[in-house]
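Our preliminary data section would be incomplete without showing what the modeling component actually yields. Below, a chain of 201 amino acids is followed by its predicted structure, encoded as tokens that our downstream tools consume directly.
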Amino acid sequence: MKLLHLDSSILPLDNSVSRTISSAIVEHFRKAKPDVTLTRRDLVSHPLPHLTLTNLPTDHPHSAPGNEAERDESQAVLNEFMASDIVVIGAPMYNFTIPTQLKAWIDRILVPGRTFQYGANGVTGLAKDKRIIIALSRGSFYGQETPYATAEHTETYLRTVLGFIGITSPEIIVAEGIGHGPEQRAAALEGAHQSIAALSV
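Predicted structure:
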């Protein structure tokens, strides 16, 4: 089993809910399967640059010469994703959507011919064999029953992007309301850890 662990929070582990949850998910799998091969990518300490034609992965049909080092890194990101069986993504909500660091990573894995293709019947996702688990943190409450439901562009965006490449059932562990005080933060973390314990391995 190959597991890719991504984090995109700008906060350190001891102050980041999404990092805490994503790390706990990874440990859940490592305890159950000690032989798991782990690849770690911190998108904040080693950020990817915003996308340009010259740093698209080599496999991308619009990739252009100009910045070979960045093209190689983009290709490495794509290869890491394609080689992984499980991808654990730490995704905090920033200003109603995902961090730009995570968006830059997503821009490397949406590649025609590798993760999706167009055909007579529309788009076909080519990454259907991936298991994606998302550790999602939100400062307030954005469920369908809340006044802020239409402002939620983190989970909805990730579901759309992953569905586009064939991953239609990502597993999402949500800790929300963490900005509503220490008691709610603790309750959100406890609920997340309970969800982690229930993950199949």
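Strands lie at 2-7, 37-42, 86-92, 116-119, 122-125, 131-138, 171-176. The longest strand covers residues 131-138. Preliminary results of this kind motivate Aim 1 of the renewal.
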